[in-house]
Amino acid sequence: MPDFSAPWRNFCAFYDTSSTPVVRFRQVTILLSNRGHVKPNRSIPLFLLVALFTAFVALHPAAQAQEPPINAEVEVGYHPGLAPGDQIEIIAPDLTETADIKLTIGPDGTVFFPYVGIVKLAGLSPEQARLLITAGLKEKQIVNDPQVTLNVVMGRNYSVYLVGQVATPVRVPVFSRVPLSMILTAGGGINANASMHVLIVHADGSAPSDVDVSRDMHDLHTLNTPVLPGDVVAVVPAGTFFAIGEFSKPGNFPIVGTQHMTLLQAIATAGGPTPFAGLSKCRVLRSVNGHREEIAFDLLKLQKGEIADPLVHTDDIIYVPRNNSKTVFNNWLNSSLTLASIGLSLATFLK
């Protein structure tokens, strides 16, 4: 609301030194009583005094409404602005020769736009850059009311880079806060070798966000994790473990399928133990602070639920040795069956 007190104070700004306050404004004398009320001189019509004060209020700057600046719009979130190397498209239909022009911001953060000259755009938002070019066209008196549109074709600070274990690593144009699900979908989703950990490196220098997602994408809370322009989203590759010894399919396997893999799940991934496996003598070799540790597990008790199913760590080596007693018994059994078979064959032949 306009402040009318300021023009009235300016209107009544000059006093003489007499006992009765007197205000003079363009040869108009106003007598003020001791109580502060305004008493117009009888020689001046009241309507003239009112008209003079009304005109003074209308012309006084404090009474005029303040217009917002052209960049009064506040952008929410982290917006580092345009940067050298960004490619922009400027559409100005009023300029027939350059109605649609594509420019690349130079190393010094400037571009050369016809009719305007060199304009520094580095650090500005796309809207601020558009207003700056529009103001330049007005200042050069090229167009009275230019209609300018500025689009970011490729912007380092207005993109999110999706890397890591995804179907297609991609640069996603982003101009505001978006959910993590949108970025993952743009890359075709995570691949079979991905872990359930997604690392978001923020452009504003804050601590990275480590997000655990589910492979079926049912966890809405993590899928709505905010991603801002300039962030890097990295889908961490799954760790691997080694299964050696008495396994049906020994080898190196990724830790995938769930957010965490347990020892029983890892054994099942390797095809399960062979009939000659020493289940009570399972060993897990694990690197801890550069040192190799050996952890013993009894798979018989584990299968019965008598002990907790431990988690498998990246680069664990799961070793299940051969049970010598089972081997000896199996060899004896095979030898016995072989001799019995030979005996039956001879008896048949002698008949």
Features:
alpha+beta, wza like fold, 4 domains, five-stranded mixed sheet, 8 helices, 25% helix, elongated
Question: Can you give a write-up of this model?
Answer:
With 351 residues, the protein is of the alpha+beta class. The protein folds into four domains: 5-63, no CATH class; 87-154, wza like fold (2-Layer Sandwich), CATH 3.30.1950.10; 174-237, no CATH class; 240-320, Roll (Outer membrane lipoprotein wza fold like). Helices cover 25% and strands 27% of the residues. The protein has eight helices and 20 strands. It has helices at 5-11, 46-59, 126-139, 180-186, 220-223, 263-269, 299-304, 324-350, and strands at 22-25, 28-32, 38-40, 87-91, 100-104, 110-113, 117-120, 149-154, 159-164, 170-173, 178-179, 194-201, 209-212, 226-227, 232-237, 240-245, 251-254, 282-288, 291-297, 317-320. A five-stranded mixed β-sheet has the order 10-9-15-12-13, covered by helices on one side. A five-stranded mixed β-sheet has the order 17-16-20-18-19. Strand 6 and strand 7 (117-120) form a beta hairpin. The relative contact order is 0.08.
User: What does the average pLDDT come to?
Assistant: 77
Helix content: 10-25%
Query: Any guess at the CATH architecture of the largest domain?
Result: Roll
* Beta-strand percentage range: 25-35%
- How many beta-strand runs? 20
Q: Number of helical segments?
A: 8
Main sheet: strands, sense, barrel:
5 strands, mixed
Strand order of the main beta sheet, please? 10-9-15-12-13
What name does the CATH topology of the largest domain carry? Outer membrane lipoprotein wza fold like
Report the structural category.
alpha+beta
- CATH class of the largest domain, named Alpha Beta
How many structural units, i.e. domains?
4
3D shape:
elongated
Tell me the span between the first and last alpha carbons: 125 Å
Low-confidence stretches: 4-43, 61-78
Write the CATH homologous superfamily of the largest domain: Outer membrane lipoprotein wza domain like
* Radius of gyration based on Cα positions: 41 Å
Order of helices and strands: HEEEHEEEEHEEEEHEEHEEEEHEEHEH
